[in-house]
Amino acid sequence: MPDGQSVSTAATMIERFEQIRPLLAAQSWRFDADRRLSDEVFAALSEAGLFRLLLPSQLGGCGLSLLDFMTVVEHAAAFDGTIGWLVGNGGGISRAGGYLPLDAAQEVFGKQSAFVASSTGAIGKAVPTKGGYRITGRWPFASGAPHATFFAPLCEVIEGNRQMVLAFLPREAVKLIDNWHVSGMKGTGSWDFEADNAFLPAEFVCDFQPIPTVAGVVYRLPGISAFVWTVATVPLGIAKGAIDALISVSSGHSRLGITFPLAERELVQAEIGRCLAKCRAAGAYMRSAMSALCESIESEGSDVVAARINYRLACSHAAESAVRIVLRVNDLIGARALAESQPFERRERDVRAAAKHTAMSAEQFVIGGRYALGGDISGASF
């Protein structure tokens, strides 16, 4: 179990992941059929601290750096898209421990089994009342909803300057709607949930762009940028897993009508090389863009807008690259990629689903190009 006063690294978290890999592998066939993780798998991920990656170490979290966070999520997604998605979402929203007052943060994240399912896919209403707010709305895509202990929807305060806030609702305050019937990322349990005039004390509500309660650039990221980071690395991890799976079978597998293994064909060798180069280049661009964004946040007078746009370009580029890589891998493996018993067809479904997230929308290329050309981006979301 993680030490509440130590700061973890990517290496220590990957080691914990590898310790539970046999359990995850034994049950991975169930994820799609059940449309959720089993209680046993979810508990193992929780106990390993993989849903506490960005939680401040003062609260028993891992306190990872942003780049270490990406490395861990990518590693998990290379094993399984569903696992990577939930580690990215759960571990990512744990950064809220650096926004909330200490008592509220301890209530939300105090138990090792804590998991916050967040949703910015819709905007609810937060009506001020004595001592807090009344929360009403319905929100989609709450990944991990079957196991969530708290839910963090985006709301608009209906009063004054109508600011955007995140409301941390306990599980008993919401109604869950099991409507996650999809082709990809089937095991993430990304259900809808709703609240109907639920009272929430003020200490469990924070601005979407909050004032941090602890030090660290992780907690000073722009709200949209912070949300994007939790999921944008997942497609690259899936692509890496697809390449690894192709390499692992290529020495003993040949296409119908071809007498020698894939590994001995120059076409396959060249394409694997290209896929590796594309995957590594996209990952390097993401890391570089995030590093530049952090530097701009910490440096007075820096062009944060340019850094944010560059960062969003990197995330959308990574998603597009990942889809192309997985499709190419599956083309190379041939008909075997169609078999549900093989580690290929599910990755294709998962990477397509992950890349459809609004965080990686192709609209970001429009914004980036418009900005480069000196156009007006005042109404753009980035």
UniProtKB/TrEMBL annotation:
<dbReference type="InterPro" id="IPR013786">
    <property type="entry name" value="AcylCoA_DH/ox_N"/>
</dbReference>
<dbReference type="InterPro" id="IPR046373">
    <property type="entry name" value="Acyl-CoA_Oxase/DH_mid-dom_sf"/>
</dbReference>
<keyword id="KW-0560">Oxidoreductase</keyword>
<dbReference type="InterPro" id="IPR037069">
    <property type="entry name" value="AcylCoA_DH/ox_N_sf"/>
</dbReference>
<protein>
    <submittedName>
        <fullName>Acyl-CoA dehydrogenase family protein</fullName>
    </submittedName>
</protein>
<feature type="domain" description="Acyl-CoA dehydrogenase C-terminal">
    <location>
        <begin position="231"/>
        <end position="361"/>
    </location>
</feature>
<feature type="domain" description="Acyl-CoA dehydrogenase/oxidase N-terminal">
    <location>
        <begin position="26"/>
        <end position="90"/>
    </location>
</feature>
<dbReference type="Pfam" id="PF08028">
    <property type="entry name" value="Acyl-CoA_dh_2"/>
</dbReference>
<dbReference type="InterPro" id="IPR036250">
    <property type="entry name" value="AcylCo_DH-like_C"/>
</dbReference>
<dbReference type="InterPro" id="IPR013107">
    <property type="entry name" value="Acyl-CoA_DH_C"/>
</dbReference>
<dbReference type="InterPro" id="IPR009100">
    <property type="entry name" value="AcylCoA_DH/oxidase_NM_dom_sf"/>
</dbReference>
<dbReference type="Pfam" id="PF02771">
    <property type="entry name" value="Acyl-CoA_dh_N"/>
</dbReference>
